[in-house]
Design goal:
InterPro entries: AAA+_ATPase, ABC_transporter-like_ATP-bd, ABC_transporter_ATP-binding, P-loop_NTPase. Helix content is about 35%, strand content about 30%. The chain is of the alpha/beta class and about 350 residues long. Helix 3 crosses helix 4. The N and C termini lie far apart (about 60 Å).
């Protein structure tokens, strides 16, 4: 039996607009997600904003009820046995919420230990153990309001582990933290896995997912688009050449021109200060160097490099493929202007 199991999990949000002539609209945030996570596995859930990652996690940890489908955590149904699930899981999310700034780290953990019904006789030792684990020993008497973002995130992890959960949900734990703090967080997460904790991680940082995760699922448009080990996902783009072009002032029209080039499979634009990096994936053997520079026209160009495909390239290819498929479906379902006009008569 897997530690986490989801079968055709769906979540639809309904809203009502208007007063005299109210209209109801429905948004399918998650559309039939199926996955399983083994005991002691560190499983990554990747996807763009709005893809359904957080909604999926909230259904798995009982914060949201599924519209349809089923999910079990350690054998307990998230809809039928939510209390049993909550006793066995921890949930840690990115950001500043969930801690009391005017309390010290120690007092925060004492407070949450009471909420989690940690035996009073075990609290002192448990808190000391967790402060050591997350690297906050010696800082426990300081107020949280003086903590950096990275220190807050490590305290979040300690808080989520107070009741010794068997399954831990980490929802973008390293968001907004500096590189040194992010490295410390990755070390803490690896230590949790080594101790046998099952971890489900969402992140926007591909290098983090590549380094930490045993398996990864990529979700887009509310469905799982790919699932496998980091190596298996990267194998999807081994037949591609990757060209990186540093540019200054490229607009959407330039990116559109590049996307239309023969042999180009995917294009990503990364903002890096005053510069942008245009990452072009093309079929191996179709040299796009000159064609891309021509498409950029008079845009000022800096460094141009070729490199091997990475997990981020595989992720971009999977997400863009899902986006293109969704657009094609919408175009296929959309009535022609003539038909629409006929219906209006």
């Amino acid at each position: 039996m897997p530690a986490i199991e989801a079968v055709d999990l769906c979540r639809t949000y309904s809203s009502r607009t208007g007063w005299l002539s109210p209209r109801r609209s429905h948004v399918d945030a998650v559309r039939g997600v199926s996955l399983d996570v083994g005991h002691g596995e560190l499983f990554g859930l990747l996807g763009p904003n709005g893809a359904g990652k957080t909604t999926t996690i909230k259904m798995l940890n009982t914060l949201l009820l599924p519209t349809s489908g089923t999910a079990r955590v350690l054998g307990y149904d998230v809809a039928r046995d939510p209390v049993a699930v909550r006793r066995r899981i921890g949930y840690i999310f990115g950001g500043d919420r969930g801690l009391y700034d005017r309390l010290s780290a120690m007092d925060n953990l004492r407070y949450f230990a009471e909420i989690y019904h940690v035996d009073p006789r075990e609290q002192r030792g448990r808190i000391a153990e967790l402060l050591e684990l997350v690297g906050l020993s010696g800082r426990e008497k300081e107020r949280v309001e003086g903590f950096s973002r990275g220190m807050r995130q490590r305290l979040h992890i300690a808080r989520g582990l107070l009741h010794r959960p068997d399954v831990l949900f980490l929802d973008e734990p390293s968001i907004g933290v500096d590189p040194v703090a992010a490295r410390d967080l990755r070390h803490t997460i690896r230590t949790l896995k080594e101790r046998g904790t099952t971890v489900l991680l969402t992140t926007h940082y591909m290098a983090e997912a590549d380094e930490l995760c045993d398996r990864i699922a990529v979700i887009a448009a509310g469905t799982i688009q790919a699932l496998g080990t980091p190596a298996e996902l990267k194998a999807r783009v081994t037949d591609r050449d990757i060209l990186e072009v540093e540019v200054y002032g490229a607009g959407e029209e330039h990116v559109t021109r590049i996307r239309r080039l023969s042999g180009v499979e995917a294009v990503q634009v990364e903002e890096r200060g005053t510069a942008q990096t245009v990452v072009v994936q093309s079929r191996r053997g179709t040299d796009q160097h000159s064609a891309v520079l021509t498409a950029l026209g008079s845009v000022r160009v800096g460094r141009v490099t070729h490199r091997e495909p990475s997990l981020e390239d595989a992720y971009v290819a999977i997400v863009e493929g899902a986006t293109d498929s969704a657009r094609a479906t919408e175009t296929h379902l959309m009535p022609s202007s003539r038909s629409a006009a006929g219906q209006g008569n």
